[in-house]
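[SOLVED] Need 3D model of a two-part complex

Original post:
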Amino acid sequence: MDALEARLRVVAKSHGETLGEHACATIEAGGKRLRPLLVFVAAGPSPAGHDAALRAAVAVELVHSATLVHDDVLDAAVLRRGRPTIAASAGRAMATATGDLLFSRAFAELAGGGSAEPVRVLSDASSALVEGELLQREDAWKLQTTRERYLRRCDLKTARLFRAACELGALAGSGNVGLLGEFGERIGLAFQLLDDVLDVSGPAERTGKHRGTDLLDGTVTLPLILARERDPELAQLDLRAVRTPEQAEGVCDAIAATGALEEARRIALEMVAEAKADLPALPEPSQQAALELVADGVVDRYR
Amino acid sequence: MDALEARLRVVAKSHGETLGEHACATIEAGGKRLRPLLVFVAAGPSPAGHDAALRAAVAVELVHSATLVHDDVLDAAVLRRGRPTIAASAGRAMATATGDLLFSRAFAELAGGGSAEPVRVLSDASSALVEGELLQREDAWKLQTTRERYLRRCDLKTARLFRAACELGALAGSGNVGLLGEFGERIGLAFQLLDDVLDVSGPAERTGKHRGTDLLDGTVTLPLILARERDPELAQLDLRAVRTPEQAEGVCDAIAATGALEEARRIALEMVAEAKADLPALPEPSQQAALELVADGVVDRYR
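Solution:
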């Protein structure tokens, strides 16, 4: 992971001073580096694929960061991980360019490894990400969003990049691309579901934001979908009338009162259990144990 | 070129209906397809590299389109090639996403050919593009922009993608990557210089826009840089005071009166001549002739 941080910084700095400054700030603002971790764990302990795994880990984090930067432009977000966004501090042009640069460098990083297959895997995931982002905007304010449509959105905007991280790790190291890709996709789905639960459950000091920010953005997530089926008042909710953090917290309380949070958590934990169930087929017990730890880490964040 | 159009349409349509609609509209709005043409001509007549050349031509045009879409978002542009921009017709989110998708698909298209080197070439060019775009915004309203800095900007934002187009063609076909890359870079620089001359010289019915749009954007180009050295009044120009199309046309007339347009054209034509001078080293006379035709085509647009 140290090699990852060092390499991310070099890549971010490589294209002009101004751009480098903002790209670096984005990278250094951090985050959990969950996707690079998945790459490394999926690659397994073999040192042979070390360079390829490092390149893949860097590339996956760059694509993830690029998406966040562009999202902040579109949402006119002011803070991200407790720091001013590039969009807020340097304007939309700089933020759009920084995102575009991070995208370009991700593919350059993979191509530098000399193999085309990783580029195919990551470009497919990044196309899915864009599609998922748009699906979310299309479905905004639609209380009647179905569970299937919600899951499709989570798959596109989150799980596909988790899948790509595992597939890229597998390509760099241990093989087992199919099995590890499935694992990544399930963990990614669970991660998104739990993230959506956390937005409703809080507490704010854990998430760094008010409860109910999704509601204020018009984003309908699984807790509301489940609660809507249980509470006739929520089934009639006018999402556009939810405008203040206080109103959003009130709706969060109503959702929690239906038991929808426990149900959503149960569905997510089932996905994690399914992801772990396939792991014994892996030949290397130490890799299996490491993957189980990562899976548990995703869940633990929400206990 | 027919295969190119067909393939561009398939790629644009491949990721969701809404996104496909806008990506297709972008592609179908057309343009001169000069960059794909360079790929094909640089690849030469050999049918062996046909698939690789087609992929490269598609990828180069996708990156070019993505850049235009993102530029329109940042400039809040309403029209592009006589049609409403995506930013104007479907909003910034859709336009940003469409640009991101076109970027992703460019790299997927190249990776599908099974070789990593083309991905490296294109991702370097697209990073340069972003850097050039930002340089232009950083230098906006700066009348004292030097000729060196202007040429560096043109190199990054235009010539590098022309170079990449030629290098990708060379990789797919004839070889001679170094020579053809140099050719592409020179033609690209000349193309940008002549484009900047055209913005000052008009006529508007040729360019589809008023004379002096660069001035209104605060973009300082070679004609103004040369004219500033010749006319003491232009050397004192307050760019921010140029606000209406009428005022911009007045400044265009003042620039033209110094002879700066002829001088800028002369510099561009010299670059084209230098580009052509290396071509006799190519083993295939028919390829040399085709490249000369493309070089002349770039110039002809401005006669």
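Edit: The beta strands of chain A are 79-80, 83-84.
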